[in-house]
Every structure is written in structure tokens, then in C-alpha cells.
Amino acid sequence: MPPSPPVASRTTSFLSLPASLFRRLVLLCCALLFLSIASLAQCPFSATLSATTTCLGSSVLNISSANTPAQITWYKDGNSFETLSGTPPEIVAKGNLSYIFGVTVDASGNVYASDLANFRVLKFPAGSNAGTSGVTVAGGNGPGTAANQLTGPQGLFIDAAGDLYVCDEPNSRVLEFPPGSTSTTLGVVVAGGNGAGSNPNQFNYPHSVWVDGSGNIFIADLSNFRVQKWAPGAAAGTTVAGGNGAGSALNQFGSVNGPTGVTVDAGGNLYVADFSNNRILKFPPGSTGATLGVVVAGGNGAGSNPNQFSYCQDVYVDGSGDLFISDVGNQRIQEWLPGATQGITVAGAAVSAVPSISEIIGLTLDAAGNIYVADQSGEQVTEWPHFPPSLSTTYTPTAVGTYYATITNTNACSVSTNQIIVTAPVTPSISISTSSTILCPSDIIQLSANIQNGGDNPGYQWMDNGTPLANVGGSNPSVPVSTLANGDIITCQLTSNNTCVTSSTALSNAITLTVKSAVSPSVNIVATPSASCPEQPVTFTVQLTNGGTTPAYQWKVDGVAVGSDTPAYTSSTLSNGDMIACFVTNDQDCSPAGSDSIIAVVNPDPVITAGQAYSIVYGGSVQLDPGITGNIVQYTWTPSTGLSDSAIRDPVASPTATIEYTLTVVDDNGCTASGQVSVRILSALAIPNAFTPNGDGKNDIFYVLGGPPGSIVKDLSIYNRWGQRIFLATDATPGDPRGGWDGRINGTYAMPGTYIYLIDIRLANGKLETYRGALELIR
Considering the domain boundaries, does residue 41 fall inside one? Predict the structure, then answer.
């Protein structure tokens, strides 16, 4: 199937390889040192549930997630009702592999892997697991140029007849082995074999191979930056892509590794993995070296976003035209659908942490769409079922209720979507009422609406005798009687914003009003107390003249009716400036009385600034100076632990442990407030004398562990035993590992041993302190 990509480094067992190949591997090793492999956090993905509508009968629910699910469980009203499951990945070849590059699968499901360190290709029967030992089907007779020897087996391909094609990279040739071959079988050179070079009959590191249905052989000629096509039985190849030197033009391939993977679809279109340009180029049938390719995946620079790669090494196209790409730097397999602008992760640590993946290199697919991944450093081949075709992410509700779904990956890590409520179509309705239908000219009536199925933001249009009332809206509006007349009829039209209704509007019942004539009693209001604090009860009392024998009282705050029919009104919810009035009607006639409209005086509570905190060293003290507004006459601190005086504004605090004090104050108006002030005990300066930068997440970085508040690490220098400075960090924060040494010199891990540190720390008072000492690097 598809070729296997190059790797970052080789073990010392490859010192016998040609010098040019060894130099190339060293160059690739240096390049891949800069790849950033992100750590997988627990459940590092999210899922969102959306709906076409929330109306039963037209609603379709859809799950969106960048992570490929292994299981989807649907819930309605908190109860699961359907579960869709996939199959977890597994190791299908491991055994005696060492430095694996390419992988391919035949029609019977047998897995073939290029075992470069042992100069051979191994076959693993279908259904193999991690404990299965492979059988040699090519090479295995040491490095060399004989027909039964392989010096550097890389890309592999099995054609429809079961013939095995092997890229013998250092020998600049492609060998074909028949079905049933063994270590004694002599391969046939079907391309190259004329030494390293750039002539049409030569290669300079043939890296991957693909054979189409007509027997044409396509080879990624790595160091010639081209793809060669060899017709059946041809003595030389023709360039069908690249061959114009290294570069980023659409007829060139990148300078690091050139083309590393090739694949051809049923229409004869050629797809090439352009390793260092982080893109997949597509070339049409009959293309030549002058043909410009089209970017069909990536091409957005190096990165980990769904539309980016970090060194794409291999590519495979399936029967639907979907592309599968090994993204080695991000340790994932991305699937790009035809015309897509970004990929979906279908294999790798982001999908499942079991089995673990060390270094994704080559890939292929079997007839069922399962993905096989060559894990170079892990020395294994893993099979990843292709979940998306079998797990539907949509559901059509058949009943009303609250729906959500739980997405589970193959590492048993689950996340839940948001909830969506599906409802049946409803009919909006409205009924209105008023506090009274018999009114006086000075009254302000309160109209109320009770609605059904109006949605979360309904609209109201109040009408007087069928004419809209201006500036009157909402479900509880106030209407001055001066705008009304005796016999007026009030109605209201509701406009529902509910997305699932039979009609968007509804008309209310009608209310007929009676407006009486008026006389003028005299009303005076007295407040007790005359001024208050927030939430303190205040009582307003009416002093009435000409009120009749059984007057009726209507209290109002800022024009809104409150209280009961009594000569007194008490409230603890007034705000400063509120206007309180009382209108009185006698027992015979309408008698609105304009009160003296007392304005409430509500003094503000004092304010204690929130979030006040102090820091001291153990055994130290600090004078508290809280931020307070208001004319304070009383202070109370609780608890009193460590305070010089708990009844003053600014006591001296000397706690022995971090503590939070509560300060309660009373101002000259009798109003109170409380707030918190914390005192933290800080740790002293700490510099370690050893560290272990082994990547286990523990003690991997040497840095200043702590220090006085406000201090700055102005200069942190590391020197080797010869007095040479090998590391420098400036203006770091004590306790921040980002300002420390990770045990590497110019990107290379430093040798274990003793080093010298010199640290200058500027304290908050401006004083510069210098610390020198020995540091032990332990691996």
C-alpha cells in the first residue's frame, strides 16, 4: 500500500550504511528536534449539540466534535435510549520489528512491515496481535546489493496479484517479490538499480512506491525532489511531478526530505506528501515535471490546527477520494474529505491513548477502511477502525423532551453536549386584568397580562378602543387615567417569539373602564424616621383633611401603586430619591389628593474595598490600612487573632498563619458594612541544588522556587566546569519554571554532572542580592 516516511534518527547499528544516507538521517534528526508534541490532557475535546429547529416534527439534532467518537449515547429527559459503538484500536504487529518504516496490507488482511534495522520485510498473518512473530518475505540476509538482500527497505506496496514491491532506498532500486516469497527468494528489479543519480533510469533515495491498476509504478524519488513513473517493463522512468529542485512552488517539493509519500486514485490522479512544505499536492493524469500541482490538504504553514500539518510524511487515497495523511509532528492521522478545508483526526493520541503511539510514520488502509499505522519508535503496527462511516452523529426526535448526547473516545474518556429542548407546536394566548375598573382622573392604573406560549421575549401592544396606546408596553404597564375616558375599552395583542407556535399573535379579552368625577381633599405625608439606611424600614403616615368618613388610601412609589388601603405605609426596599405619594378618595366621590410627595432619604452604607490582601514573611507583622468610604464611628475586627487592637481602623497584624479577617464598620448615620482583609504568610527564597530533566514532569527544570514578594530574578546564569556560560535567563519571576534551565545546551541534552549557577535577585526595595552555588544535573 502507501510508502513509509523517513524518520528522525537511526541507531548505531546503521553505521555501516552509505555515508550519504547517514548524513541525510542526521539532517532529518536535527529537523525533527524542533517538532512540538503536545501532552494529552484528560478528555481534550468538546462536543456541541445543535438542531435545525426545536419544533417536534421538523427537528434534527446534530453532534459536532473535532474528536472521532468511539461511542455515542443519546439521552432524553436524563435517560439513555440509544447507544452507538465503534471498535477500539489494537496492535497487530510488533514481535521482532526494529526501526519500522513502511506498512501495507494484502487482500487477505496479512500485514507487511519494512524492518529496516534487520534489512528485511516481515509478514504478519491476519488477526495477529502484539505477541505474534512475523515471517521474512524479502531480504533478511544482511545489507547488500544481491537480489535477496535489502540495505534500507522503506516504502511497501502489494498489488492485486499479491506481488510485493519494496523501495530499497540506499541501493536506489525498487524490487518486486512474488506471493509466497521467503528470505531465499530473489527479487526482481522493476525500477532503478543503476546506481544513485538523477538520470531517468536512476534514483537518489527512492522512498515510497505505488502501483496502479495498469501496472504503472510511481516512486517518490526523495533527494531528486521528483516523482517518477515506470511503465511495466520500462528501462527508465518519466517525471510526473517535481524534478525542478527544492522549493515551495507548485511544481517543487521541500528541501527537507522532498516528496515522502505517493498514492494514486481510481481516476489516475497522483497525490504527493510534500514533507517540509506541510502540504499534499494533487497532479492530474498525464502530468509532467512542468505541471503545477494543486494543494488539496494543508498548505497553511506548520502547526497543529485542523488545517495544518507538522511534517506530513505519508498519504493514502481511498475509493471515495478521502485522503488519509500521517502528520508525524502532531502524532496523528488526519482524514480530509474531497474539497475539505481542514482535516479530522481519526488515529493517534487525540483519538485514543491505548495503545500508545510513539512516532507515526507510514500508513495504509484495508478494504474495510481500517487504518494501519507504522509506529517507528514504538516498533509496532497498530490498526485503527475507521469510525465515522458507522457512527451517525444525527438523530431525529420522535417525542418532546430534553435531549443531549455523551461522546466517548476509545480511551473511555467521555464528554457531554449541551441540552436542547424539543417541544410540540403550541398556540399562544393572553388574558389581561387591572387593579380596578373604577378610577379617578388622577389615578395611574396597573395593567397586567397573563400569557401562555409567548416565548422568552414576547411582544405586547396595548390598545384603547382599538388604537395603540403610545409608550405603553410590557406585561405590567402603568397607564395614567388622564389618557383615558369613561367607557374606554382596553385590550392587548400578544406577539409570541416562540419558535414552535400555530400562530404568532393572539388578542386578549376586553376591559371596560369607569372614570369618576373628583373633589380635592388635603393630604400631608410624614416619614419616620426622616432618613434611613439601605433596607431599614421607614413608615409613612397620612395627615388628612376633607377625606370624608371612610376614606380610601392608595400609596404609590414613583407612580407605581404599593401598600394596602391604610393611612400608613412601611417599606424597607426604598432607594435614595424615591418619591412616595398617597392618594385618598372619600366614601362618596372620587377624591384624588396630590400629596406632598415626600422624597425618601436613604443614606448609603459605608463601603469596604473588596479583595484587600497583605503579604508578610513568617514571624513578621504589617499594619492593616483598609480602603473605606464613609464617616466611620465604630470599627470591629474578627477574629482578633494576631491583632494589636480589634476596635481601631488600622491595627498591626502579626499572625503565624495565613488568615482572613472580617472588618465591620458603622458610620455616623448608623449604617454598617463588612468586608474581608487577608494576610498571607509567604515562603522564603529557595534555590534547589539538583534537578532531573528526564521528561517525567517532576523536577525537570532548574529555577528559583520562591522569594520575597515583588522580587525579580534579574539574571540566572549556568556555567560548565570550564567556566563557560551555557544558559542565561533574565527578568524572571521567582516560582515560575518558564524562567529556568531545562538541561539542554543549544537544543542538545547536557551531560550529567556538576554545574555552577550565579543568580542576581532584585528585591522589591531595589536591593540586588547575588547567589552562587553548585548544581547537580542527574539523568
Answer: no
Regarding whether 244 and 107 lie in a shared domain, the answer is yes
Q: What's the whole-number mean pLDDT along residues 593-616?
A: 83
Co-location of 263 and 354 in the same domain: yes
C-alpha cell at 346: 481519526
- 324 and 246 in a single domain? The answer is yes
- Is pLDDT of 519 > 80? no
pLDDT of 41: 44
Are 371 and 397 part of one and the same domain?
no
User: Which pLDDT band, with edges at 50, 70 and 90, does 412 fall under?
Assistant: low
- Please say if the pLDDT value at position 426 is more than 80: yes
Contact 762, 714 (CB under 8 A): yes
Distance CA 414, CA 412 (A): 6
Polymer length in residues for the chain: 779
Distance, in Å, from the CA atom of 129 to the CA atom of 443, rounded to the nearest integer, reads 88
Is residue 404 domain-resident?
A: yes
In degrees, rounded to 5, the angle at the alpha carbon of residue 622 between the alpha carbons of residues 620 and 627 is: 155
What is the rounded CA–CA span in Å between residue 697 and residue 395?
Answer: 43
Q: What pLDDT, on the 0 to 100 scale, is given for residue 582? A: 86
Separation of alpha carbons 484 and 496, rounded Å: 27
**Domain boundary pick from 682, 703, 734:** 682
Amino acid letter for position 396: T
Q: Can you give the CATH number for the domain in which 293 is found?
A: 2.120.10.30
Domain membership flag for residue 732: yes
484-489, long-range: CB < 8 A, 24+ apart = 484/439, 484/445, 484/513, 484/515, 485/515, 486/513, 486/514, 486/515, 486/516, 487/512, 487/513, 487/514, 488/464, 488/512, 488/513, 488/515, 489/464, 489/465, 489/513
**pLDDT tens digits, residue range 213-237?**
999 999 999 999 999 999 999 999 9
Distance CA 644, CA 167 (A): 84
What digits encode the pLDDT tens for the residues 79-99?
A: 988 877 667 788 999 878 888
